[in-house]
Design brief:
The protein is built from 14 helices and 19 strands. By secondary structure, the protein is of the alpha+beta class. It has three domains: about 150 residues, 3-Layer(aba) Sandwich (Rossmann fold); about 120 residues, no CATH class; about 120 residues, no CATH class. The longest helix is centred in the last third of the chain and has 20 residues. The protein is globular. The relative contact order is 0.10.
């Protein structure tokens, strides 16, 4: 709010529940905000970051601001700018972090209640994590008084607002570890067609197209989706991709009587006109898939996982399946060892600390978060022991996809505990005992 001179009207107190949505979803408005000199702005930021800054701007010196917002700023990349803004402009006074329980009926995100004062951040402040020991209807204020602890913002952008024992274990796992991104690996998105209805087909349609012309089989590839993935393996549901990335080579496809390499597939794809032609980034030939610079990776040995999952579900594939757009794939070296660590209880526990969530009880296993997982360097013997167990699991799963391999997985967990030199007490923390 501005006065007649065009300056902000300053307030003693600002209270609010700003909207939560990514600025990437409102391109026109985002372009405006990018030019408005917001210190908390980035292309991927949530709009509530700007509300924190605007609220801080209209406070009187030593005034108070309290917002209920998503708590994703604690762990998301865009939150780094918001934390920097707090340190330079606002002193946090109290943070109630609501991670494991849902106290707001209509909320679709995990949230927090944060109170700040307009002064540079120089002090520690009380934090409480609302957990399942909270009884609905009880006073949040009383719960906070009984369960808070002092938190000192670190010099790094990552703020871990947890119990001291958990923080110490997190630091131990990170100590002398190598980040996953520093291994000889490459992570990419699953294949994006731009219009799945035209390019993702079932078994019946696959058989029809091959019956029309056996050559069609050369560009029809089996597909694994996020929902098909299990820990270590997957269940193939007979879904296929029409891989026309370089298949239909006629660049004059709209010209009458032009020659088409795969006429049956062309007729199938053209049945989805005009929508299939409205896709972006598919080159000169609208029958092609969206451009993909790493197409060869799909036919390599790889680890596949879905972006959204309640548990670690990293699957291994050496059968040249294509990974669909809701998944990620990792190629490179030491894959079976990395597969074991990624599926371990240590990894799942650590990712629950640093990962972002959907707000509905599931994590987002995004590339930039997966790359930050700390991996202890194994000895040759440790790596061999772990890989032998992985091979046993994979051999069993290939013959019997629903086979119970829990005993082998538990053995891997024990080896991973040794890899990180965890004590019995630390193992109890990881296992939630």
């Amino acid at each position: 709010m501005l006065n007649d001179e065009g300056d902000f009207i300053e307030f003693d107190v600002v209270i609010g529940n700003p909207p939560y949505f990514s600025l990437s979803k409102v391109k026109e408005q985002s372009d405006y905000f990018s030019k408005a000199n917001y210190k908390t702005y980035s292309k991927g930021a949530d709009i509530y970051c700007l509300f924190y800054e605007l609220g801080g701007n209209i406070l009187k010196p030593f005034g108070f601001l309290t917002y209920i917002t998503s708590n994703s700023w604690l762990r998301a990349i865009y939150g780094e700018l918001l934390k920097k803004y707090f340190i330079n402009n606002l002193q946090p006074l109290a943070l109630l972090n609501i991670d494991d329980v849902q106290i707001f009926e209509e909320a679709t995100v995990e949230s927090n209640i944060l109170t700040l004062q307009k002064s540079p951040s120089t002090l520690s402040f009380p934090v409480s994590n609302l957990s399942n020991n909270y009884l609905f209807g009880d006073s949040l204020s009383e719960y906070f008084k009984k369960n808070n602890f002092q938190f000192t913002p670190p010099a790094t952008p990552e703020w871990f607002v947890g119990e001291q024992s958990i923080g110490l274990l997190k630091n131990k796992i990170e100590s002398e570890s190598k980040l996953l991104k520093d291994y000889n690996i490459r992570i990419n998105f699953g294949i994006k067609t731009g219009y799945n209805e035209a390019f993702i087909i079932d078994e019946k349609k696959k058989d029809e197209l091959i019956a029309l012309d056996s050559k069609n089989a050369s560009i029809i590839k089996p597909v694994i989706r996020g929902r098909d993935l299990k820990k270590y393996f997957y269940e193939f549901e007979k879904i296929y991709l029409i891989n026309t990335h370089n298949g239909i080579k006629s660049l004059n496809i709209d010209r009458v009587n032009c020659e088409i390499d795969f006429p049956g597939i062309y007729n199938h794809i053209s049945s989805f006109l005009p929508k299939v032609k409205m896709r972006s980034d598919m080159g000169k030939d609208w029958t092609n898939l969206k451009n993909c610079a790493y197409l060869e990776d799909f036919e390599k040995e790889k680890i596949i996982w879905g972006e959204i999952s309640d548990k670690a579900k990293f699957a291994y594939d050496d059968q040249k399946y294509f990974a669909e757009a809701t998944t990620f794939l990792m190629t490179g070296q030491n894959l079976k060892f990395l597969l074991a660590v990624l599926n371990s209880k240590v990894s799942e526990w650590y990712f629950n600390l640093i990962g972002t969530t959907t707000g509905m009880g599931t994590n987002r296993w995004k590339k930039y978060k997966i790359e930050m997982l700390p991996i202890k360097q194994p000895s040759d013997l440790q790596e061999k022991e772990i890989e032998n167990l992985v091979n046993e699991i994979l051999k069993t799963k290939k013959s019997y996809p629903n086979a119970d391999t829990l005993n082998l997985e538990n053995q891997i967990d024990q080896l991973v505990y040794k890899l990180y030199n965890l004590t019995e007490e630390e193992i109890k923390i990881v296992e939630g005992v």
